[in-house]
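[job 4471] stage=fold_predict status=RUNNING
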Amino acid sequence: MKEPREKDNKEMKQRDENISENISELEENEKSNQEEICNCDEQGDCCCDEATCNCNLNEDDCECEECNELDSEKRKQFYKTDLEQKVKEYLYTARRLQAEFDNYRKKSELKLKQARLDGQIQAISKILPALDSFAGASKTIADKKVLEGVCLIEDQLVSALKSLDVSKIKAVGEQFDPNLHNALAVVKDNSTGDNIITEEYLSGYILNDKVIRHSQVIVNKKEEN
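[job 4471] inference complete, writing structure tokens
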């Protein structure tokens, strides 16, 4: 009965020794692998590719300080360059949008100004025939009281037009200007200067530099000798 027990003890002892040897071999292999993965020399120069540590550890827990430092600087430079590029793009976009908005604002202001001017001219044009009627009536009315009332209304209309920067175009005695006057007829009188307006049939009006209606006039032309 003793022989089988001794045999079993020997086998268990041999088995324990084999296990111990395997554990030692695994520990040696693991240590060798770690040394090959991160192999920094004595001067501190890291052998990792592109300054990226290959240790089997997380990036934040990497024990290779030189590698981590280089990799961190590289990331910072990349982020800085990328940020600068984005800032340039955003700044260019902002300036372009600002320029487009300024152009739009200027065009809108010009259109609004022109629309106001056109509205004023259209409204004033509707008033002018009534003013012409008062001017014609004042020449034919004999009753002084009625004439005074008509002249008063005419003066009020003229004052209202002046408040809108509308002025009457000078005609009789002035040099004929095709930009301001329309010649209905021509007379020949050597006693009057050449191209001088002698009569006005219909008054003309101007708003600032914009002619609302040209004056209808008669112009003198001297006879050629």
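[job 4471] summary: Helices lie at 2-37, 65-140, 144-163.
[job 4471] exit 0
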